[in-house]
Amino acid sequence: xxxxxxxxxxxxxxxxxxxxxxxxxxxxxxxxxxxxxxxxxxxxxxxxxxxxxxxxxxxxxxxxxxxxxxxxxxxxxxxxxxxxxxxxxxxxxxxxxxxxxxxxxxxxxxxxxxxxxxxxxxxxxxxxxxxxxxxxxxxxxxxxxxxxxxxxxxxxxxxxxxxxxxxxxxxxxxxxxxxxxxxxxxxxxxxxxxxxxxxxxxxxxxxxxxxxxxxxxxxxxxxxxxxxxxxxxxxxxxxxxxxxxxxxxxxxxxxxxxxxxxxxxxxxxxxxxxxxxxxxxxxxxxxxxxxxxxxxxxxxxxxxxxxxxxxxxxxxxxxxxxxxxxxxxxxxxxxxxxxxxxxxxxxxxxxxxxxxxxxxxxxxxx
Length: 366
Known about the structure:
This protein has two domains: about 5-185 and about 345-365, Rossmann fold, CATH 3.40.50; about 185-345, Rossmann fold, CATH 3.40.50.2000. The strands form two sheets. A seven-stranded parallel sheet has the order 3-2-1-4-5-6-7. Strands 10-9-8-11-12-13 form a six-stranded parallel sheet, with helices on both faces. Helix 8 packs across helix 13 and helix 11 crosses helix 14 (about 335-340). The model has no long low-confidence stretch (mean pLDDT about 90). The termini are close together. The chain is α/β, with parallel strands linked by helices. About 40% of the residues lie in helices and about 15% in strands.
């Protein structure tokens, strides 16, 4: 069986790329297709595969400004020749699912999220875009949304990474999705022996929707040490808000991240994520999570057991949650946290994902 994996872009390695890496381990002979490739950033497993790019990769500035070429990506996908493949797995968060496959081939879409900038987060992206980008996106938005829905009709089976995303798939694409939570490398962590730590931690790409600004404001008011790991377009603005107890560490290697995570009092997770691998990694290390109670966090964080959920996406609500956490900090068991994280292990993902592929072929009559 010949297998093709279609991923939106391979520029910065994040949660979606870790999922792709796990799928690559299931299909070690698979070919990878993507719009943009930055080889120097690739995860080790991805380097072992043959990777082909669409014509977007050859366009000026695409390595860093690939999202500006979004209107051309449907055309680029539809020009790919995938007739030699029996199984096509599209990894969808940017445009990936719009490929054309053989009638007897199975096209399974693993959906991290319907494109946020086309649907529910469109106003936020508009607010933070330049004048020309805002004008162009307003003109192109109806046609891009139409293509997004029509291309979802080509997919034989949709698998969402959370119930939250499955609801969004139903809302915007009018398709039903099965849920398989993303894999987390729980083997990389062992539960620490004691609770408590020296600092709070935020970790991830510094983009607007992550709402790291709320963690900064809350820790500024409380005078609590906060370490922020990661980089992104919001860093300069966030640094301007930071008080003396907040430190920005930039990008760190995995070992350094794990060490800082183990020493943390808790992970602060104020954004609304479709799933959120980082909170599960924290719990695997025995670290509680204080998360905004929307999106994927409601499926991974057990309020009062593995962390706390706060209901309003505001600095006041997070401030109150941190104070509440500190009154019951000693009650969180690292062993319980680690055991809960095992529910999202890579072994469980592999078993569930292969079952979805088998069911997809069965429905095709193959």
